[in-house]
RNA sequence: GCCCGAGUGGUGAAAUGGUAGACACGAGGGACUUAAAAUCCCUUGACCCUAAAGGUUGUGCAGGUUCAAGUCCUGUCUCGGGCACCA
């Protein structure tokens, strides 16, 4: 009975349908199994070495994923699975950066709470991501908008508030320590990072201060503090933006204009970490471009600060920063920023009006205007003069907006002979230009910034070279307290407030105009409900709308909360730690988990975060490291940027009226008259201001080509023709389109009209077409403006050929007719563009997966090219990968079913397997995943040619392919009888001895030119080899009797004979 | 303007200083088929030439180093990205 049942089973299941590679049924099965058995659960315990591979988490946008998004996820998943097979305990998590503007904008428009729309988007993302078989441990998912998560974002903010940066210790220390110091020593002998204008005070002065005065002073030291400053205010978004959120003077998101506005904002004292953030880059395995961008952003420059006296104001001085103190004898004027504090004080009465109007003008200009004007010179003379400390020379003081208030001291010493901007300014205001180096040339034409040569007109450094001059000058300044060597940064402290709803509330309340932290036990400070997501009538942020949202402080009093929320980068600056211990409610991450996972080993994400997320995360990480809360200075050891996947748009050409006119001429009239008796014909008739498309000189017929929808035009032509005494033939675009592949039908109509007597011909037949599309190869015969070029949905195009049956279903092509190519196909043109809905080039991964399977999709994304490079998505090539997967499958199955046998493999089979093991292992390690796929293809083609179906070869091959095509591998793995998942198999190891061959084919070059190949035994070398090579016919022939100068032999590589 | 990065067939691309174009797509030809699809086989950088063979040339351009250069060096052009009155 059993036998009978098995036989029956075999009969029903061994039909073709079952033995063919059916990706979707396999994939659904294993996806479910993996979910149900928790295959991707990760535990933080165990003796295995750890490996933490992380993708930058996405903002869950409403549009869902397109084929470009998963590129990095697939790549990281392959590495994660590979490392797991190699015996690592791999952490490969995913979550959502779920606070953000789009959800809030949507809320403003629809009233839907951002939490609700965000939840919906996340669910969609989750579904799409799961389809890709990414081995994420979903039990560790984090969301930055989850109160259980942002509790710890707020906690980190509180730590920053209660710490200052100590320059002695080179780390953050508790503010209490600073207070202690003040109580004993005042501000003397403290070396801490603080605001520029922080006053000095003694211990007794400190003690005499009120609570408010003390707190105000401490704000100058805290690592996050509220500050009145000029910010980038974006009225369009109703919020402040940071510098990296602005591109080309408008907001990166939305493209709204941005203006300067003085506002009180929370600020992060990132500049305290400038040096460490810069120096830390040297030890990171990150792309050079990212490191370089961060270096530029931090912008450290070494120079000198110099004090210039002001004539008539002995108590004041102007401090400048310069990187070229050696040029100080070339100073012929000074320039202050219009906002400089001394401007009003030193301006003379006669110049007061001019200066005031310049300041007003400069302040009114937006960044966009400034940028548009470029380097146009503007400025105003203050009437005052500065005193050069070295030679006492008096130089005029100007203000100009090319000097930035925010950088350095907001003042520059102008050296027109060496600085282009100063030179331009000097030319414009007719100021003197003094040469200071004997090598400077053509100073009447432009500045010369050289450091070469010896100084002239330069007092104490006359005759010296650059290297000697700088220390001389700096020494002289330092001795007299007039200046010192100084390091200057471009990096600004980061504005941390946003006037938005959908962000983390700042855990602060205000008392007597001063901010205080709420109690830690009151965390998280949750977002309150509001009636609308807009600013209040009084201009306060949306949180100002929350009814009765006040803090009850320990003193029992109620106070107002801070109404700003945190910026988008707050939650993303530490999320990598939360994955290690996602549900910990007493710490942001437990110590045990931190000690085990330590830091991210491999981080993958887009290059657009180069100076935003990646710099802020490093900043917070350095801070947490100072507090002893995290084990490593840097959060991510290695970083790779995946390139964008661009869209590949397809275009079709729709015929315009011009086309039909040209068509009638080219395809109908011209051949018609060539065949028949030649008739004198004017292409265009012209009578009484009326153009006919075609008018015959020897006949009273005129032809008009137009759309039948243009009834008015037809009417007009008809009238005109009647007045001219012409008979009229109207050919409509629509009927021409109907008969587009049969010009003789139209020719017949013309012939009948020519011979006929009727005054007016127009078809009565209802046309089938309302538009005509022309295959792109045919368009070259017509003028370009005979067509409109339109985007066509790439999903109905394959290999640039329009699928007419799919097109017929679209409203766009209802009643359209198509002029096909000679091959009977309709061809489109293509172009690479950004992937976007409006360009109809968005390819949804779900569709690709449904058709080819997730394994095929994963492999194809990797196969297109290197991860780091931007490249266009083109579904065409996927058939190559699909074919490969089927061939691979066919090594295991034929029509009869499972065909794997237990025979002993031969040398050649082993060599192909082990070569693939070697190449794939190496290539995954150097993150070259596209070439891995090639190696799989080569191996499969070879094994197929060898008709190899041996278990000893195919079983390791399944493990090898498992990171790339996990479903397929799981299915095949189980057929071998395994009950455990292929994810926990053992990665095969390449055994070099199988790679050895007995003979090797060596290319032979003569003078570097390839002349032929020679097959020699491995290991043959020296005189014996040389003799064998020289005996070759092709060698002798190409030598032409010349004597050999040198015989070069590179083992297993090449032979080169030099003559 | 400054700083990065990249230029290789019709296309995506490959190549520790060692036969340039692996692996694919597309295209062309053939087999199977009543036909189509699917599948399989052959050809495929350009040019010259042949019966077979063979040869010339070729990695943006111009030089250089080397027995040997897509790869290293110098200069130059083009494209992409970043920064931009940063003193």
Give a brief outline of the structure.
This protein has 1059 residues and is an alpha+beta fold. Among the domains are: 301-487, Valyl/Leucyl/Isoleucyl-tRNA synthetase, editing domain (Isoleucyl-tRNA Synthetase, domain 2); 654-774, Endonuclease, Chain A, CATH 3.40.960; 878-992, Isoleucyl-tRNA Synthetase, Domain 1 (Orthogonal Bundle), CATH 1.10.730.10; 999-1058, Ubiquitin-like (UB roll), CATH 3.10.20.
Kindly report the CATH topology of one domain. Isoleucyl-tRNA Synthetase, domain 2
Oligomeric state of the chains? Answer: single chain
How many β-strands, per DSSP? 44
Spans of at least 5 consecutive residues whose pLDDT stays below 50 are 1-17, 683-689
Distance between the termini: 82 Å
Q: Cα-atom Rg, whole angstroms?
A: 39 Å
Overall geometry comes to globular
Residues in β-strands, percent? 15-25%
Total helical segments: 36
Question: Can you tell me the CATH class of one domain?
Answer: Alpha Beta
Largest β-sheet summary: 7 strands, mixed
Describe the fold and architecture.
By secondary structure, the chain is α+β, with helices and mostly antiparallel strands. Among the domains are: 301-487, Valyl/Leucyl/Isoleucyl-tRNA synthetase, editing domain (Isoleucyl-tRNA Synthetase, domain 2), CATH 3.90.740; 654-774, VSR Endonuclease (Endonuclease, Chain A, 3-Layer(aba) Sandwich); 878-992, Isoleucyl-tRNA Synthetase, Domain 1, CATH 1.10.730.10; 999-1058, Ubiquitin-like (UB roll) (Roll). Helices cover 36% and strands 20% of the residues. The strands form twelve sheets. Strands 10, 11, 12, 13, 14, 15 and 16 form a seven-stranded mixed β-sheet that branches. Strand 18 and strand 19 form a beta hairpin. The chain binds one RNA strand of 87 nucleotides through helix 12, strand 11, strand 15, helix 16 and strand 38.
